[in-house]
Amino acid sequence: xxxxxxxxxxxxxxxxxxxxxxxxxxxxxxxxxxxxxxxxxxxxxxxxxxxxxxxxxxxxxxxxxxxxxxxxxxxxxxxxxxxxxxxxxxxxxxxxxxxxxxxxxxxxxxxxxxxxxxxxxxxxxxxxxxxxxxxxxxxxxxxxxxxxxxxxxxxxxxxxxxxxxxxxxxxxxxxxxxxxxxxxxxxxxxxxxxxxxxxxxxxxxxxxxxxxxxxxxxxxxxxxxxxxxxxxxxxxxxxxxxxxxxxxxxxxxxxxxxxxxxxxxxxxxxxxxxxxxxxxxxxxxxxxxxxxxxxxxxxxxxxxxxxxxxxxxxxxxxxxxxxxxxxxxxxxxxxxxxxxxxxxxxxxxxxxxxxxxxxxxxxxxxxxxxxxxxxxxxxxxxxxxxxxxxxxxxxxxxxxxxxxxxxxxxxxxxxxxxxxxxxxxxxxxxxxxxxxxxxxxxxxxxxxxxxxxxxxxxxxxxx
Length: 463
Ligand code: LLP
Description:
28% of the residues lie in helices and 25% in strands. It contains 12 helices and 24 strands. Strands 4, 17, 18, 19, 20, 21, 22, 23 and 24 form a 9-stranded mixed beta sheet that branches. An 8-stranded parallel barrel has the order 5-6-7-8-9-13-15-16, surrounded by 7 helices. Strand 5, helix 3 (101-110) and strand 6 form a beta-alpha-beta unit. Helix 7 (215-224) packs across helix 8 (246-266). Mean pLDDT is 93; it is low at 1-14.
């Protein structure tokens, strides 16, 4: 983990309580490139800009809090993934990380496919113009309506998650007179997270058909018997925020093992495997994720080695990164409202958002960094906890981070790496309207998801 006991002395802060936090950077004004969108820079004025626009202008025009998405950064990451895997493989962006019509257009233009996991995501994908054949539908409990819609529009694949779903999808495809390409999601007994993976006992989860109890092989048997389903491959997804490919190695070994069994039993070589998403990003400067080309090279190597070993021809590989595409492309811009100092403990800096726009800190104990972005400051580093405006003490945005000691109401703070799973998991807790998403590029800013209003909230309240 990136937290470490604090090694610095009084040079950095007057009083440092017990706790786990990283050392303050030598210069609080410096923006660590790993966690900021690539066009972010601190100007001579001291204020930060992104996409060529001063954050103070963004706050003025769009209000705070606001998610600021760097389109150039997003597109560059799409291209990096696309180029790393090359024409012989497919990259499906996982829309659950963040989805909007503009993002779908960018994905389409940059040659990525799209993984959706609900009717709402499918509708957004189609509204954004993603060709249906480049869409994959996931989910452990897809409704019949979602399945029907997906088959009707002609999605490229439905990833089957249970025995009941095999029957359900086959029946609906039959009714519609279609033969639907499907993959089977299997659980391979591997759970990976950050630097560790555990290769036993992780079949205790709701997703997929287990390899070890024979359900995966049985699912293949059942699907192969159904005329309305075309089995194109096997799918596996092993975890989140993974920095190390050893978990994928075990997963690929087991998936390829199943392909070999299928060949032996049915005389069929399935043409595709999907190894899912889960590739990690830097949330704080201490995190050091691998680049797409490193991941692509090792996954391709692992898969071809395993296939060679099993005497199989190498199937077409696909992956489903969500976080690693959009996570680093955005930051959340907040305005400071109050500052409460607790001498000897820490300082609570309250911003105008919180757990409704970023639940990840409260939910997963996720780590983030934060910077003062509306001006530079030479004040000493002050151990801070950035909290929101919600009526709950767990409403923490950044648990432990250093801010300049002169941080004050009216200052703008930005929390980087909030592109994934922040807007998509945002809520209206305390009837707080959700912030907009503003895309910036080449000196221009435009709203791609507008701010909710109190009217929006009241519109649903029909009682
Ligand atoms: N494919 C499948 C089948 C998945 O279930 C997921 C994520 C992905 C791809 C994309 O994973 P990514 O590359 O974005 O890690 N709300 C949590 C993350 C939940 C991820 C669930 N599935 C968070 O905020 O960290």
